[in-house]
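Record Guanylate kinase, 204 aa.
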Amino acid sequence: METAHKLIIITGATGTGKTTVSRYLTENYHIKRVMTHTTRPMRVGEENGVDYYFETPESFATKHYIEAVTYAGYQYGSSHESLNKAWAKAPFVSIVLDTAGAITYARNIPSDIVVLYLTIDDPNVLRQRLLGRGDEPKMVEARLQSPEYTRDLSLPDELKPFATVINNDSWPAAQVQIDAFMKHLALKAAGLDSNVANETMPEH
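=>
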């Protein structure tokens, strides 16, 4: 059953432009991102409720998580509470996840999600993007050899019913695809279009 609200899950391998797409949706479509929770200390310049919900281990344990992980000794998670708070402000919201996290959402709230899966055809473009954002060359190569990177290079079968594939070799071309996706999503929400999910946008 279709719902009036949707969570746009932005996923894909590292360097494919997930954060860029999230910012584009916020700046051009006022799509707010779902705030996630963490027990790690707040960094200089960060704000509670803007970058994360910063929690104590005790307060973290009071939430009801759709997905949660422990990384470097700190807990991270996205909660039903945060998602519902975002939906109370707008019908469409977004979150950036790896494909494993996206699958967790697909299993838990399948009627509430659509997926933007980002790809890059040219590995050199991806490598240059990672280097361009300041990552050390050794770190870049380690990421490109990691099992998580290999996993996220392919759209998992479980996500295919929900996914629109966006090729991001060229950002201007990707913007055209994203704009078309948002138009379809708005039409579908209005009951006028049924071709949002499981669709690959045409190349431009």
